């Protein structure tokens, strides 16, 4: 089979036993790979109502048919589990050589279950699984863990690991490899709950492709396009440039979403840091874009992106680029998702400001306070016991109405997009299956550049959100980098051609559009099975009751009724019923009849 091994490896880390599980050919074609195939495996391997940190809860590493091909940005892997932070599906992506090497072990996915009696690492070499003691790795960062294992293991291994936060099961701990992170939703906590510190992979099984000559030709064309204007900003200052743009438009979340403009920010400061402190611009494995901007901080080299800078900067009222870079480095050291870390700390800062939390040291604008809070979260000591649970659970424990300004949707902290000023994105955040999410819905693109240049009505807003989710579902299943999306004239048609060259299938745009809808639907079905209800598709009360002043003297407002109407329009556009359930007719159209009884 071109592009696929047609099986996944299942490992019980309690017993050390492993088995090969076949993947039906029609499943590969229907769900493609990455997030889509991973969601199908998650349904198969998990039980309804399971505790996400229980031994039987699976953690899934899933690859795609494009991994190992010459296509730019294709060296990515997906990690899926039931999130301990949200109790809903979590699917995170990372780019690195781990994806290439793991696919060469001879499997399309690796499933980890059970709980080891002692701290261990999982070693997969040519399909053979062994477990080794990892006591000497306890407390180390993911990077230090990898470096130490590289001296212990034979050359050629690629290693994904967790830091101290994952070991302590902080609910927003991440998984890392090569300074890249599968960050959102607490996947590092899931691996930590299994007493596994790292997974090392090595293989030599290379996948054949159906039309190698034509694929190389297309790969060259795609690489050439990736150097064009659609990706230029990522090569220059990188996504950090969004700070200036969003601040000017009054949609830069500041002081826990109390403001949309951070007056203290000095873009010159960030530009000076870019000139003076940037060590290098780097590319992910098998990537020609080169979006990574590596800086030197007090904690060593750190990768800087907009989401980290906003979450640990304006959201917490911290203005110094140098200080923010140090906080990012600290999160990397412990293995913490920067968005959830910043969102939870900013929430706690506002609780202190309002007199709801007796921690007077935790003040907006204090870099030392943020630094202390990060350490407490990673060790789960003192205030960190509460904050390690994320802003939603922290708010429920603090009470006193604080849930109204906890910056989360479905338990996942909101990324750097102000919903009152970006109302198509507000819909995307509310309905996303993973929770508040900018990577599963790029609906903000419609806010910045509506197709007609006019204000969109509810139906158009809903259609934009649906189209954005579908595009993301396809890209995340192929898996390609979303920064590449602007180089395609017709993403679905061109992707169908690429996938056909790899697999030998006669695929077309229509089939891939249906596959993308199917992937969105199966993630929704998982959430429905785990107790989702339409009441979860909303935003914190703050966004409906508090307007934001803009620099131009106006106000950004979000109507709760308007959002509810847009959610109804979104479900109508998806052919789901008015409360978000998926009817039998739609399931049949999508080829998901087998999941009817699981709703």
Please characterize this protein's 3D structure:
The chain has 599 residues and is of the alpha+beta class. It has three domains: 7-202, Aldehyde ferredoxin oxidoreductase, N-terminal domain (Aldehyde Ferredoxin Oxidoreductase,  A, domain 1, 4-Layer Sandwich), CATH 3.60.9; 227-413, Aldehyde Ferredoxin Oxidoreductase Protein, subunit A, domain 2, CATH 1.10.569.10; 423-598, Aldehyde Ferredoxin Oxidoreductase Protein, subunit A, domain 3. Helix content is 40%, strand content 14%. It contains 24 helices and 19 strands. The strands form six sheets. The protein has a six-stranded mixed β-sheet with strand order 2-1-6-3-4-5. A four-stranded mixed β-sheet has the order 8-7-12-9, sandwiched between helices. A hairpin with a 5-residue loop joins β1 (7-12) and β2. The chain is globular and about 60 Å long. 57% of the residues are buried.
What is the gist of this entry?
With 599 residues, this protein is α+β, with helices and mostly antiparallel strands.
What tags apply to this protein structure?
single chain; about 600 residues; alpha+beta; Aldehyde Ferredoxin Oxidoreductase,  A, domain 1; Aldehyde Ferredoxin Oxidoreductase Protein, subunit A, domain 2; Aldehyde Ferredoxin Oxidoreductase Protein, subunit A, domain 3; six-stranded mixed sheet; four-stranded mixed sheet; 24 helices; about 15% strand; globular
